[in-house]
């Protein structure tokens, strides 16, 4: 198959949507499919274009068998409501020529990744012009989240945006998303059930294992071998409710065995560092290279996963897959009844979102009970083995791609999609 992936985030970004888009593209390319990507220069989560790239120019490169075309975009120093909209619109407009040029190679599928929804109209148009199937993959309901978190306001504006979103989503041949609750929301927005697909995020369970050595991080950072380390690793943005972490660390400041490691970058990091001033057992790290992720995750005895209350079931934190694969328990701030809560309930402790008192008590409880940590960690690893292995998840996605292409061409999809490579 020929597959064109379109979205604002891509490797070498280490977290979030870019990580998953790149892994999808590279996995498909390794399977023998012809994969190309239209994206932006890497900038996330630092909100600064990475060294070696330029925000204002078109460029192309080959990455692990994938042709990657990059289009300019504007990156604000401090992303907010209006600035974020301009940022997304700048890429949607600048990338349209690259998208149409890539579509001239007549892909079988054009898969656009949300965020950003701004890119969806161009993807749908390009697919119709070249005869490809149009596929919308939702990593994050950015519009709903923006209103729920107060980044966008106004009942009238929300009604207008919802009508436009509903009209657009119904135009796509397939709409996929990463959790059952998010899939239910797609159906509520008018997507036909026959066009809705569950495509959860994944992890390479052979690369992230409980056996990966994390002691070198402890030695490097001066953390005692017998310390209990609570780790947050990932984007430091507005949806995570990171200020809760500072309150948790401060409440547990007298627990000498407890160390906190906060690893990541993003617009909320400076505020988090400010709130942690004076806490001697709190350490900040920048995002670590992908090849060091296993060692980093295994530095933890406890993983921390805070979440803003308004983000429930609008996102499924991408960092969760690595946490579970590492075989460590998770302390998660999520409302009961959400899908995130249902996953974590069997392999960690749940607290109400943005409740530092409850999260601190959960961390303290786990820090004193190695048997509970071991039991919950084993359950976390088992969940990853059963549900999140990259080959199983993307193998199912590949079959869905083959089926939608075969339907367009009026034939039955082969059992192994590679069997049809000469025909597509």
Question: What report would you give on this structure?
Answer:
- There is one protein chain.
- By secondary structure, this protein is α/β, with parallel strands linked by helices.
- The chain folds into 2 domains: 2-202 and 389-423, 3-Layer(aba) Sandwich (Rossmann fold); 215-386, 3-Layer(aba) Sandwich (Rossmann fold).
- 40% of the residues lie in helices and 16% in strands.
- The chain contains 16 helices and 14 strands.
- It has helices at residues 16-30, 81-94, 96-103, 120-130, 142-148, 155-169, 180-188, 215-221, 243-251, 269-275, 293-297, 320-325, 339-344, 356-367, 370-387, 390-408; strands spanning 2-6, 34-39, 59-63, 66-70, 109-114, 133-138, 174-177, 196-198, 228-233, 258-263, 282-285, 302-305, 330-333, 348-351.
- An 8-stranded mixed sheet has the order 3-4-2-1-5-6-7-8, sandwiched between helices. Strands 11-10-9-12-13-14 form a 6-stranded parallel sheet.
- Strand 10 (258-263), helix 10 and strand 11 form a beta-alpha-beta unit.
- Helix 3 runs parallel beside helix 4, helix 9 (243-251) runs parallel beside helix 10 and helix 9 packs across helix 14.
- The termini are close together.
- Mean pLDDT is 91; it is low at 417-424.
Task: Produce a short descriptive summary.
This is Putative glycosyl transferase. The protein is an alpha/beta fold and 424 residues long.
